Every structure is written in C-alpha cells, then in structure tokens.
Amino acid sequence: MAKYFDVHPDNPQARSIGQVADAVRSGALIAYPTDSCYALGCRLGSRDGMDRIRSIRRLDDRHHFTLMCRDFAQLGQFVRVDNDVFRAVKASTPGSYTFILPATREVPRMLQHPKKKTVGVRIPDHVVTQALLAELGEPLVSSTLLLPDEEEPMTQGWEIKDRLDHVVDAVVDSGDCGTEPTTVVDFSSGEAEIVRRGAGDTDRFE
C-alpha cells in the first residue's frame, strides 16, 4: 500500500517533505502534484522506477521522460543550451513548459532518447514540488500521471491513492492542480518546434 502524505499547498510541512524525499532516495515511485497536473516521479538513475512508470502508463522506449529541476542552474547541468535557446528557456521558467534538449553526460543513457540523445527538462512553478526538489537536491525523473485509455490526468490525491495503491509507493496530496499538461517545446535542432500545446503560452515560440 502506498503511503499518503497530506501536504499544505502553500506551507508544506518540512517533516512530510523530508519523508517523501527519503522515500525517493530509497527507490520509491511517487505520485506528486505540479503546476500542471499530477506526475509520477522516481530518483535519477532508477531503472526500476522508470520501468514502473512505463508499465503504469504503457509507454514504449521512445517516450521522453522529464527531469523536474529546481532551478535554471540545476537544469544547466543536464542539458546543453546555446545562447538563443538559453534566453527563450530562461524567460519561460519556472512555468508550465517542458523543453527537449540535448543531454549532457550527467544524464544516464537509459533516460535519453535512444536515437536523438535528448531529454525533457522543466522547472515547475509549484510550492510543494519546489520544496521537494530542494530537499532532494537533485531532479526527479518524471512523467505526467495520465493512465492508458484516459483522456485527462487524475486531479485528486485521494483518487490516485485509491486507484494506484499497489503500483506506487507514496502519494503526495496538496489539492487539485488541474488537468492540463505542460506545453512541450523541442529545441534539439536549435529551432523551437512545438510538440504539444498545453498550459504554457506558445506565442513566444511561434
């Protein structure tokens, strides 16, 4: 059974955040809130965690996982960003955007796109997510919590706990965080290509 953490959306309890971070470090797969719907997350480098996310969502090997980063400095450790792209990404973070960029050597090969050697990165604008990332000290490997054959992600922590109780290890509930996923922008070629239109405004990339 998954552990359930009821976390205040504006003033997250340090003890609960610490317990969730410890669970992630120990290999746990968690469901947690972001600024654009709930996500599944595991520790960087956890093959088991990634395999479990693929199994829950029925994803293939070409799926781009996302590194949920605390800030731009952390993001810069894991992807290569030239000057033009730097300005565009910096102006859009934190926020509801995922950027696909060439991965650095800091990114485990199993996390990179098998052919393109890219990875998704984003910086969330969410108090609880930011508190967890600060406590963890490294990015969370993440994927939107959208179940197979369903059009929208689940929005309630209790519902996630009820339905995924035996396939995740912990659920962090800080209230409804919406159903619209991030806008995905692929910068791997140097030019902006909008892969998915979502919560983030696309005007600046068109």
Automatic annotation (TrEMBL):
GO terms for molecular function: double-stranded RNA binding. Residues 14-200 form the YrdC-like domain. InterPro entries: DHBP_synth_RibB-like_a/b_dom (IPR017945), Sua5-like_dom (IPR006070), SUA5_domain (IPR052532). This is Threonylcarbamoyl-AMP synthase. It holds the Pfam family Sua5_yciO_yrdC.
